[in-house]
Amino acid sequence: MIDAQTPVKPDKNKITLVIHGGAGTILRKNMTPEKEKAYKEVLNQALQTGYKILQNGGSSLDAVEATIRVMEDSPLFNAGKGSVFTHEGKNEMDAAIMDGSTLKAGAIAGVSVIKNPVSTARKVMENSAHVMLIGRGAEEFAKEQGMEIVDPSYFYTENRYQQLQRAIEEDKIQLDHSKDKGSLDEPLPGDEKKFGTVGAVALDQYGNLAAATSTGGMTNKRWNRVGDAPIIGAGTYANNQTCAVSATGHGEYFIRSVVGYDISALMEYKALSVKNAAEEVVLKKLVQRGGEGGVIALDRNGNFAMPFNSEGMYRGYIKADGKSEVLIYKD
């Protein structure tokens, strides 16, 4: 384990940021040019926000937090402002962040009034003795930490509310825009079906990795269901010795498969590359178990992978030289 205090000669040529905005049935035929442009604009804004921090000598933790906040503030993604509704017509959000240099992590789940869940997750990591806080306790902690608290109505978006109504009519627990049989598979006008969780992984000039994930969970979810995003080792994981991972998909499968840690373990114990490890888990293991979705994974040398077994995944990256790319579809 590299000690957090070990002096490392800064190397700006290493910095890398990779993001995702959800995976699922994302098809060109369901996407209007206007909608595609809107998604790409927010993804690019998120990339540039994190990149600027890394370029200016900021930490990978600072970069992933700021990057996620951009997507949490957009109604296009199932996190923060754009979170989906529970069966009771509420928004329950989850988020996690992890520091690859120390293996410290923070997470929150089932919160309804915290504007930027990822920032509270970081406060849990840095200003508490715990890893995960949930519900009212997490909200009380957020208030004590000076986090921005909003009225639950802030998270209301008409599109998400209509999704809930359709899910209730069909009596289905609906992954955010996920592929399903029946009328739920028909997109709302100008909308496509996806798992809209957002995530970011970063490598800073000091050689430190970090990962963060934020989500609104499943449409029509009940009983305070929590997915993989806030669970360390499942939807979020970072270790300087191996990689940083953020996942998006059918959370139950990602939890059972401990996706983030499994990718790290394949790199550590079998010496697989980040690409081969991520593909082994997402394209083989998850598929065999029936799990749909994808991950972004980044190693300490700046190599990264963005595999997914769904029709598409909102994803993008930016390298040290400023070269960036935002992708949506499989081809």
UniProtKB/TrEMBL annotation:
<keyword id="KW-0378">Hydrolase</keyword>
<dbReference type="InterPro" id="IPR029055">
    <property type="entry name" value="Ntn_hydrolases_N"/>
</dbReference>
<dbReference type="Pfam" id="PF01112">
    <property type="entry name" value="Asparaginase_2"/>
</dbReference>
<dbReference type="InterPro" id="IPR000246">
    <property type="entry name" value="Peptidase_T2"/>
</dbReference>
<dbReference type="GO" id="GO:0016811">
    <property type="term" value="F:hydrolase activity, acting on carbon-nitrogen (but not peptide) bonds, in linear amides"/>
</dbReference>
<protein>
    <recommendedName>
        <fullName>Isoaspartyl peptidase</fullName>
    </recommendedName>
</protein>
<feature type="site" description="Cleavage; by autolysis">
    <location>
        <begin position="196"/>
        <end position="197"/>
    </location>
</feature>
<keyword id="KW-0645">Protease</keyword>
<feature type="binding site">
    <location>
        <begin position="248"/>
        <end position="251"/>
    </location>
    <ligand>
        <name>substrate</name>
    </ligand>
</feature>
<feature type="active site" description="Nucleophile">
    <location>
        <position position="197"/>
    </location>
</feature>
<dbReference type="GO" id="GO:0008233">
    <property type="term" value="F:peptidase activity"/>
</dbReference>
<feature type="binding site">
    <location>
        <begin position="225"/>
        <end position="228"/>
    </location>
    <ligand>
        <name>substrate</name>
    </ligand>
</feature>
<keyword id="KW-0068">Autocatalytic cleavage</keyword>
<dbReference type="GO" id="GO:0006508">
    <property type="term" value="P:proteolysis"/>
</dbReference>
